[in-house]
Amino acid sequence: MTGYGRVLKIGAAALLAGCTLAAGTAQAQETYTLRFNHVLGPNEPFHKGFTDWSERVEERTGGGLKMDVFHSSQLGVEEDIIEQIRQGANIGQNTDAARLGNYVPGIAVVNGPYFVSTIEEAYALADLPTMKKWQQELADEHGLKVVCFDWVQGFRNFYTNKEIREPADLEGLRIRTPPAPIWQESIRALGAEPTAMNFGDVYPGLQQRAIDGAELVYPNITAANLNEVLKIANETKHILLVNFQVVSSKWFNSLPVEYQTALVEECRTAGQETSEVIRQATEAARQKLIEAGMTIVEDVDMEAFRQAGEAAYEALGIVEAKKQLQSEMQQ
């Protein structure tokens, strides 16, 4: 081979190596972004929990997967966001079993009256065969990937301007609930008239007397200053609210496997930590409301409310789904 030929060969090899290195660098620098939406305000414990989750995912993936967290429905109304997720958008949403029940009816039982009574029971749901089957159905048939549901927001109570001790006391009261069947039927079964309304509209809705009360958790009341328009907390504890974090299954499947693992594992870690923060924050919020003059009704006829709540499962035809999960929980 002539000297000229050797130069050409070396030059071609160098060019090929350079192209390979450039391609490898481009691949290594590929990043993914998740825009994560929730309806709560920036002062809610969940918001800090979501930002913690975001920071851990970004650190664990070396910046390869970034999460931008948007509070107060900045990206849009929850139901609209879920539809965008189903179409494959790189958006996440904090939601609940009630809304997911619009796609897989059985899963709505998790949001039903008096379904689980402790945080530990809520965590244990993740290992149940039926819950795994429902999540697979959500992903395969409806485009909704449940990242995790270890985010327990606490017990929901009725907040009104009238003392409530038994279901009959709720008769005629318009109580704000999210717009999903299990929410509506639960509140109707417990004795009130359910009124669908977005969380951000609750304060003005109470001011304008479009509603007579709301069913929420204690930290919601303090964070949104709802005690300015609601004077009585009735401790019915009718739902232990379990939150689900969902993303597009199409988008999730496009991630490198290690990014998928990071997103799921850090979701569970941040969720359980935040649930404990909320457990403590609930008592602090309760005490703050007492000091602000809110009346706390503790002597509630819990058995009467439990019995009344069964009608919600019957109305939606998910009694058997409830029994199936409860059976698996006892095994």
Automatic annotation (TrEMBL):
UniProt GO cellular component terms: outer membrane-bounded periplasmic space
Alphabetic keyword roster: Signal
Signal peptide: 1-28
Domain of life (superkingdom): Bacteria
Gene Ontology biological-process annotations: transmembrane transport
Keyword Chloroplast: no
Pfam families for the chain: DctP (PF03480)
NCBIfam families assigned: TRAP_S1
PANTHER family: C4-DICARBOXYLATE-BINDING PROTEIN, PTHR33376
Record-given protein name: TRAP-type C4-dicarboxylate transport system substrate-binding protein
Species of origin: Roseibium marinum
